[in-house]
Design brief:
Layout: H1 2-8, H2 12-20, E1 28-30, E2 33-35, H3 38-52, H4 57-68, H5 73-77, E3 88-90, H6 92-98, H7 105-114, E4 117-120, E5 123-126, H8 129-140, H9 145-173, H10 177-203
Antiparallel strand pairs: 1-2, 3-5, 4-5
Helix pairs in contact: 4-7, 7-9, 9-10
Length: 206
């Protein structure tokens, strides 16, 4: 414990306090010896970084609890499901930096429920680099993350219906093995129709 506290730049008393607040996981024990590892040190450094960014210990504890109860990355991605999306591994500090002041327990829980976020050890995994980048860009434009996530939930409902429609059409004339090969065609249709719909929406503006 003393060695971990020294490496993290905190006092043993502070470390004990963090353990009591469950901000770090219990150490691995061998008899009367408690072993801490690099994961504990990384968590302590993340806590320090979040405190420097203005987060409170209560807020950090809520974030940690939300992540602990979040889904594992394998559950989110589906280990046997092929995907065109590139997952992104992030520390809690890196996630907070992308969405300055917007990574609240409520927003984190909403992102986990949507399947955007999973956990891999002490890291957070976002299922899609494209969605992560777009969400961060919208927040930088002044749109609250809560509204971005709420819109994402509505989009999810619509695209699930589109995916079902595409699958029905393909399976009437081809096999499931053809689905992956034909996915780019479905994406092109959706992108083109969305572009045209945005054009129509803009023409309605006064």
């Amino acid at each position: 414990m003393e060695e971990l506290a020294r490496l993290a730049g905190i006092t043993v008393r502070t470390l004990r306090f963090y353990r009591e607040r469950k901000l770090i996981r219990p150490p691995r024990r061998e008899g009367r010896i408690a072993w801490y590892d690099d994961h504990h040190l990384a968590r302590l450094r993340t806590i320090a970084a979040l405190l420097e960014r203005g987060h409170t210990l209560n807020g950090i504890a809520e974030l940690a609890e939300a992540l602990e109860h979040g889904r594992d990355v394998a559950d989110v991605l589906g280990v046997d499901t092929p995907t065109e999306e590139e997952p992104v591994h992030l520390t809690p500090e890196e996630l907070a930096a992308r969405f300055e002041g917007e990574v609240t327990p409520e927003n984190l829980a909403a992102a986990i429920d949507l399947g955007y976020l999973g956990t891999d050890g002490d890291e957070i995994v976002h299922v899609s680099r494209r969605l992560l980048d777009v969400s961060a860009a919208l927040v930088r434009e002044g749109i609250p993350l809560a509204e971005v996530l709420a819109a994402g939930k509505q989009v999810r409902e619509h695209v699930d219906a589109l995916a079902e429609l595409f699958a029905d059409v393909v399976l009437r004339h081809a096999t499931e093995d053809d689905m992956q090969r034909l996915r780019p065609l479905a994406r092109s249709v959706v992108e083109a129709e969305l572009s045209l719909a945005m054009d129509r929406r803009m023409r309605k503006q006064p």
